[in-house]
Structure formats: C-alpha cells, structure tokens
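Q: Give me the 3D complex with 2-acetamido-2-deoxy-beta-D-glucopyranose.
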Amino acid sequence: MSIFALPVLVLAVLAVHTINVAALPQVLVYTKTAGYRHESIPIAVQTITSLGNGSLTLPSSAIDPSISAVRWSTVNTEDETRFHNLTFLSQFDAIGFVSTTDQDPPLTGTVLDDQGLRNFARYIEQGGGYFGIHSAAATLFGAPFYGRLVGAYFDYHPQIQNVSVKPVDASHPSTSRWPADGLRIYEEVYNFRSDPRNLPSPAHVLVTNASTFSDPGVNPQGFRNGTNGPSPHPLAWWRQGGLLDTNSSTDASVSGVGGADIQAAGGPGRAWYTSLGHDVSTWQLDLFRGHVAGGIGWVLQSSTARSAHGGSSNGSTGTSSQDTTPASSSAHSLRPARLHLPAMAVTALVVTLPGLSVLVAQIRIPV
Ligand SMILES: *[C@@H]1O[C@H](CO)[C@@H](O)[C@H](O)[C@H]1NC(C)=O
Ligand SMILES: *[C@@H]1O[C@H](CO)[C@@H](O)[C@H](O)[C@H]1NC(C)=O
Ligand SMILES: *[C@@H]1O[C@H](CO)[C@@H](O)[C@H](O)[C@H]1NC(C)=O
Ligand SMILES: *[C@@H]1O[C@H](CO)[C@@H](O)[C@H](O)[C@H]1NC(C)=O
Ligand SMILES: *[C@@H]1O[C@H](CO)[C@@H](O)[C@H](O)[C@H]1NC(C)=O
Ligand SMILES: *[C@@H]1O[C@H](CO)[C@@H](O)[C@H](O)[C@H]1NC(C)=O
Ligand SMILES: CC(=O)N[C@H]1CO[C@H](CO)[C@@H](O)[C@@H]1O
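A: Here is the predicted complex, encoded as structure tokens.
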C-alpha cells in the first residue's frame, strides 16, 4: 500500500462509519398469494415504497405530523424461502403482509412453509414489528400464532360496495386526519372469526363502519357462529406487546385448524392491521395513504424496532428495491442498526479505489 492510500483509507473508514449512524428503518413487504390475487398489489407496493422514500408526500390534511417525517426503505418479496433465513428477517424493523392470501378453502395452500413460519414467529418474539393490510387476515390459517399476531382471522365479507368508514380513535397517527363522520370508500367490509379485543394484549379499535350496508351473511358485524359482535365493529386496530400471547377461551377461533405446531408467545413490538385496501381506488385516496403511512410509521417508532437502537428514522432519503437483500453481516437479530447503507459506500469505494477494496471489506466487518 502506498503512503497516499493511508489517508484515503482513514477517510473511507470515517465515511462508512458516518453512514452507519444514519441507517434507515427497513421494511419487508410480503405479497405472496396462494389464493385470490388482488389487482391492487402493485399500487400497494408502490405506495408503501414511495411513502418510505419520500417521493410521495401527502398534504398535511392527510398525514399525521408525528409520523410525516418518518422514512424507511422497502424490500418487496414474494419468495417464501426468504423466510428460511432469520438473519435476513432480522434486518427489518417491520414485516408487512400486504394482501397476501391463502388458498380457499383454508388449509389447502398457504404462503409460508413450516421453516418460514418458525423464523417469522421468532422474529416477532424478538421484538420485530408487523403490519397487515386487507387479506393479510385471510392468510396462514394453519398457524395460530399468526392469527394472534394479526388479531383475528378473516371470516367473510359481503359484496364490495360504497360504504363509510370512520375513526374510532382519532388520537392514533393512522386515523387522526380522517373526517369524524367517515370516509366514503368502495370497499369490502370484513367480518372476523373472533374479536381481537379478547386477546390478552387486546386490540385497540381504530376504524369501524359508519353506514348501513347490505350484508346478507350469517353474522353481519359479528364474529363466528351467528353472534353479532359488540360495537364498534373492528375494521382496523393496533396492538402493542404480548403480540403472540394466547387466550385459551378464544384460541379455537383465533387459531386455524391443523398446520404447523409452532409454540410462540410474547412479542414485545407493535402490530397494526387494516382490513381496508381491496380496491385500486382506495390506494389513490390521500386519506387512505395517510392511514397506511400512520400505521407503518407508528410500528417503526416502537422502542423495540431495530433502528431505534442506533438508526435514525429521518434525515436520509429512502431507497427502494425489488426482492433484494440489504447488506448485513449481523447474525444477531434486532441489534443496533448497522451495515445497511455501508454496503453502498463500499461499492462506491471499490469503483474509485480498486486497490483498497480488500482492506475496506475487511474493516467493514467489525464496524
Ligand atoms: C421511490 O419509490 C418509488 C416507487 O418504487 C420509485 O418510483 C422512486 O424512483 C423512488 N425514489 C427514490 C428517490 O428512490
Ligand atoms: C442470510 O441472510 C444474511 C443477511 O441477508 C446473509 O448475509 C446470509 O448470506 C444469508 N444466509 C444464507 C444461508 O442465505
Ligand atoms: C360508488 O361511488 C362512486 C363515487 O361516488 C360512484 O362513481 C360509483 O358508481 C359507486 N358504486 C356503486 C356500486 O354504487
Ligand atoms: C379471553 O377471552 C374472553 C372472551 O372469550 C374474555 O372474556 C377474557 O377476558 C379473555 N381473557 C384474557 C386473559 O384476555
Ligand atoms: C354498520 O353496518 C351494519 C350493517 O349494515 C349496520 O347495521 C350498523 O348500524 C353499522 N354501524 C354503524 C355504527 O353505523
Ligand atoms: C430527525 O428527528 C429528530 C428528532 O425528532 C430531529 O431533532 C431532527 O431535526 C430530525 N432531522 C431531520 C434531518 O429531519
Ligand atoms: C364453537 C362453534 O359453535 N363452532 C361452530 C361454528 O360454526 C361452524 C359452521 O357452522 C361449525 O362447524 C362450528 O362447530
């Protein structure tokens, strides 16, 4: 190495270190479908990615100020083998299931195999965040821990129609901007198998229906087996801590039947779910986009989120990628944010300083 290389190397190390400090939260968006495939999946992924990288900004009338500066980088995948690698999952501050589906009828086809389910359960137990959108509740019927994580499994919905949905709790960043009398929306109104408020770590209902509509089903506004649920009917909710804890008296309906026998409990992080988001038109509404931004932003602000231990949720421009692996050499889940953007810096250094590439690569490991 020439003497000129040394100061350059020091600068390179400093550059890598500086970028480490400003690691962005990372979000994995899973969109695999074993059954019905929503036409809105592409716009959903695009919306979440562009809200995260700041290219889609919402008027202040549509987004809560407490999360409007939160940025994240999004990785979208439909490859279930990604869940075979817990180290890969552990790089993410939150994993979102967006319009995923099992095959219909339930238990005839699903989107994660047992190895993936086990790793996903561990990820949540270790403080990972979760958000679910729309048919995320009609997914993994065979894995009871997932039913508890979402809060409830989908039961059925009446035909899609124009309905009004309104905020129940306008103090949450995902609903604070909604008009009190409701948002007119062309949507499927979901009914669930169980009441997410009966979980040991109960759901806090955020959205309910505000209009009468046609539901010829067996238990309109209710939970399984003909009983109407208590008011308000849950259409979106948040939960924090104890995400996987069981309630034996409701477990039969929260659980699917059969499937992987995965024991999982705890889960100190945050979970947010909305049943809305079926139609492309819904994703074009600023108030719905602000709902989603508020949900994801709130999950990312969890003290258990990986980036809360050294990353920064603002100050950098987000990146987006399709099914790529953000760089990480961390084998330990949910440790302080490190080694995400440095890979980009290393790549740049390799281009400009080919002679130092090996050295830089060696130095980057203990950073
Ligand atoms: C942000 O994400 C959107 C959607 O994927 C993409 O079109 C856009 O180029 C990205 N912008 C930046 C600055 O990365
Ligand atoms: C698991 O993921 C990590 C982080 O993306 C990666 O470095 C590692 O190579 C992966 N392991 C396997 C066996 O694919
Ligand atoms: C739903 O409302 C929209 C906008 O008001 C309207 O264009 C559409 O015809 C309505 N659809 C139905 C099925 O009523
Ligand atoms: C379990 O669920 C029942 C409703 O089926 C509810 O009354 C009870 O409070 C719940 N128990 C716990 C510990 O959450
Ligand atoms: C919700 O919809 C049901 C079915 O149309 C209706 O009976 C109920 O009154 C609605 N809830 C509210 C709060 O309007
Ligand atoms: C990031 O957030 C912190 C804390 O809210 C704030 O002090 C800082 O100014 C923000 N930085 C940028 C670049 O927005
Ligand atoms: C607990 C309970 O009553 N379960 C019933 C709910 O409804 C389904 C379908 O009608 C029955 O198969 C269950 O036994």
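A quick observation: The radius of gyration is 21 Å.
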